[in-house]
Amino acid sequence: LRCLEAFFGFTPAAARKSFRNFMAYSSCLMGIDFGTTDMEPIHTTLSFLKTQMMKLGRDYVSIVALMTVLRPRKFEYFELEITADSMDHSLLDLISWRHIVNNYLVALLLSISLSQSTLGISIIYNICYGYQTREVVMNPI
Questions:
Q1: From the CB of residue 6, how many other CB atoms can be counted at a distance below 10 Å?
Q2: Smallest Cα–Cα separation from 129: which of 50, 17, 42, 47?
Q3: Mean pLDDT of the chain
Q4: Contact yes or no for 38/14 (Cβ under 8 A)
Q5: CA-closest candidate to residue 118, choices 2, 30, 58, 45
Q6: CA 74 → CA 37, 63, 66, 84, 95, distances in Å?
Q7: Is the pLDDT score of 84 beyond 70?
Q8: Mean pLDDT throughout 3-32?
Q9: Which long-range contacts (CB under 8 A, 24 or more apart) does 72-78 make?
Q10: How confident is the model at residue 79 (pLDDT cuts 50, 70, 90)?
């Protein structure tokens, strides 16, 4: 994707400022934060790392709580008359509150696990590169 950005001229102006900025931008999967005035990568601070670690811990606790509740019930918290993997659902079965809440809980688990994994990778980039990265998954649920 970064190659296509460079080929078609959509690379951000801050990344085009210098070869060092371009290499940092193109080699980081998460996207590096650049300053608005000097267009240089923003250096990682201890408070930024602490904030990222707190978010990672929050996501870890949330995943453990959801997995503790959902896994023993085979990811179907509320029992339904028809099994979840069948194709015999009527329209009323699909819009029943039990079915909707089951789907919401699994979607929440997926969203939080995506957030946790991208935060973990971005912390590695923060430590190795010394630059702040952008948050990729904003937890829409």
A1: 15
A2: 42
A3: 89
A4: no
A5: 30
A6: 52, 15, 12, 10, 21
A7: no
A8: 88
A9: 75/102, 75/105, 75/106, 75/109, 76/102, 77/101, 77/102, 77/105, 78/102
A10: confident
